[in-house]
Inverse folding.
């Protein structure tokens, strides 16, 4: 893709984010736009970086590791991990990512915890569907998982993350997420982040308090097919 197309999309999305924030009576400075670069080559991250993007996300451990290694010299990039973390790959994810959005079970808390190391920012991923096969904890289990993270030595709980269900109005789902975020804040008052909103639903997420948007295709264009 030409850089100017990328720049145009980025500018348009950022404009829509600003509009949605204004409509919601929120300060756009309280919203972090993360560009999801999964399946794209490291060169795309480099182009985004040249356009001022500093927060990027991946959803596969292998890809996170290889891209972040390839781009090691790039200043101030913050790698967010938004995919399922296998316990045995937890340390590798921890080494490569600045933020892990997808903590969904207690076993992963101990696998990610690395006493003596710098704290790692994490979020509790909440499953907003009835389908137990989708990623995330059930809403009622979120506070307990938050407690487990709070007890860890080297994980810093920042908030909650979720993906809107396919078969529900995203606004309704994000409203529920805002309620769960409140229950998590009752356990860890500093855990104020709400990571929600993708290409198709970020405006609804903003109106329900999202602080971190994970936007892929609306900025990057279609993803190269998954290998
Ligand atoms: C791919 C992905 C996104 C971005 O999706 P788009 O629809 O391309 O914006 C956001 N969150 C997660 C967890 C993803 O895996």
């Amino acid at each position: 893709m030409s850089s100017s197309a990328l720049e145009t999309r980025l500018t348009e999305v950022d404009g829509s984010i600003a509009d949605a924030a204004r409509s919601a009576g929120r300060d756009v400075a309280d919203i972090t736009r993360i560009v999801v670069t999964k399946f794209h080559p490291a060169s795309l991250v480099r182009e985004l970086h040249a356009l001022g993007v500093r927060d990027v996300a991946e959803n596969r451990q292998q890809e996170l590791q290889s891209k972040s290694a390839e781009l090691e010299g790039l200043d101030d990039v913050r790698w967010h991990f938004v995919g399922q973390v296998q316990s045995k790959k937890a340390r590798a994810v921890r080494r490569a990512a600045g933020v892990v959005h997808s903590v969904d079970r207690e076993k992963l808390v101990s696998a990610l915890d690395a006493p003596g190391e710098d704290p790692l920012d994490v979020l509790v991923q909440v499953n907003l569907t009835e389908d137990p096969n989708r990623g995330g904890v059930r809403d009622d289990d979120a506070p307990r998982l938050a407690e487990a993270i709070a007890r860890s030595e080297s994980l810093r709980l920042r908030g909650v993350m979720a993906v809107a269900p396919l078969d529900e109005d995203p606004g309704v789902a994000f409203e529920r997420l805002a309620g769960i975020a409140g229950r998590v804040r009752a356990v860890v008052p500093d855990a104020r982040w709400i990571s929600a909103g993708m290409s198709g639903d970020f405006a609804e997420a903003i109106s329900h308090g999202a602080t971190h948007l994970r936007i892929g295709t609306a900025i990057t264009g279609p993803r190269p097919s998954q290998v």
